[in-house]
Design a protein that fits this description.
With 397 residues, the chain is of the alpha+beta class. Helices cover 57% and strands 15% of the residues.
């Protein structure tokens, strides 16, 4: 073990290294504060990076102090190897923070809370996917670099590279579905088929794209449920994208009304209704009679709005206002069911009262005198032949 003098020297070296680190960090913080006066928000944005930089500088400083103070030997070799691993891990952690900072600064130039945010949503989708890919690569490189610090790992790495062809084939067969989702996620990010905050109808559900990863897509449904679909769904299944090139939409409200409907009055009332709401964007306002069959006339009211949520609210508002107006001002247009009672006035179409009484009293085979005679043949009395009084036999001719 080390003697007291070595421990004292090690403590002094560590203190000097930490002091130098704190001084360097203080200088960097002062420069950042001066820059923040001209560019507000820079100092706060660099907070995660500054913390990770402090950790890296502290590890490197203590490593240098230990390497200078400790004597050569097995313990110094172990210490150097441990600090090398810690330095690689801290450097990978710092690279992750720098990647996040670069992506956040890129997204800051493309706000999504504006009316025409199609480009911003496309950039946001691509940046989010690239950030995930970058973090995955940093993690792989960091772990790989740490493993290569071990002497036995280099030989293992050479053998793995030699058999990379066989491993890639086996891995491709075993993870075919996972790899398909990964490539589909990258395709979605750069093909502009869907973007974050796009309004879609997928798997029969209406919602917004909330998150796009390398393997799945999260759809925020209108009732606040989350629909998680694999990335291959959007590359192999037809779906509706309501905000692919723009968010403006048209919507219809249909009424089944009576034939006495006044389409001109309905158009005037629609103009008054739309003038009272900000949901209408002023592009389309129309009333059309689209069908007239049976006892009803179908009227379609066509309106437009800036996006899907506003269009839904606008359709509900127009439907409610027009129903109230029809109930109070256009009652003749309320649907009705008509029954026409017609009396047949053809002569001799109905029997007389005497004939009805005759049929009722006659019974079987009624309706005419001939029918009554035929009925008597079945229901009247039967006349028997004359019999012999002595023995009751029937006399023969």
């Amino acid at each position: 073990m080390f003697d007291l003098q070595t421990w004292i020297a090690l403590g002094i070296g560590v203190a000097i290294a930490l002091s130098a680190m704190l001084a360097l960090v203080g200088i960097v913080a002062l420069v950042m504060r001066l820059v923040a006066r001209r560019y507000p928000g820079v100092y706060e944005a660099l907070a995660p990076t500054r913390r990770r930089l402090r950790v890296l500088l502290a590890v490197v400083g203590v490593w240098i102090a230990a390497a200078v103070v400790l004597p050569d030997g097995d313990i110094l070799t172990i210490v150097n190897h441990g600090f090398l691993i810690a330095t690689i891990a801290a450097a990978g952690w710092l690279l992750g923070a720098l990647l996040n900072l670069a992506m956040e600064r890129t997204l800051a130039h493309y706000p999504t809370d504006v009316a025409d945010n199609g480009v911003a949503r496309r950039v946001r989708t691509q940046v989010l996917v690239l950030r995930r890919i970058g973090h995955a690569l940093i993690a792989i490189l960091t772990v790989g670099s740490i493993l290569l610090t071990f002497p036995g790992a280099q030989t293992l790495g050479a053998s793995v590279l030699a058999s990379a062809g066989l491993i890639s084939v086996v891995a491709g067969i075993a993870a075919q579905s996972a790899l398909a989702n990964v490539f589909a996620g990258m395709q979605l990010a750069f093909s502009d088929a869907i973007r974050v905050d796009d309004v879609v109808i997928a798997d029969g559900e209406w919602g917004r794209i909330e998150e796009i990863t390398l393997t799945y897509v999260v759809v925020n449904i209108w009732d606040q449920r989350r629909l998680v679909l694999p990335s291959t769904y959007f590359t192999s299944t037809p779906f509706q994208n309501w905000t692919r090139s723009g968010s403006e939409l048209l919507g219809a409200v249909e009424f089944d009304l009576d034939w006495r409907v006044n389409a001109t009055g309905l158009r005037a009332e629609l103009d008054r209704v739309l003038a009272r709401t900000e949901l209408w964007d002023g592009r389309v306002s129309n009333v059309q009679v689209t069908d007239a069959t049976g006892g009803l006339v179908r009227v379609r009211v066509l309106v437009s709005s800036t996006d899907a949520p506003n269009l839904w609210d606008l359709r509900c508002f127009v439907r409610e206002e027009l129903v109230m107006w029809i109930q109070t001002q256009l009652t003749a247009s309320i649907p009705r069911t008509r029954v026409l009672m017609v009396e047949d006035e053809t002569p001799d179409a109905r029997p007389s009262v005497a004939e009805d009484r005759h049929r009722t009293e006659s019974g079987l085979f009624t309706g005419s005198p001939e029918a009554d005679r035929r009925g008597q043949e079945f229901t009247g009395g039967i006349t028997l032949p004359h019999t012999n009084d002595a023995d009751g036999s029937i006399p023969r001719d």
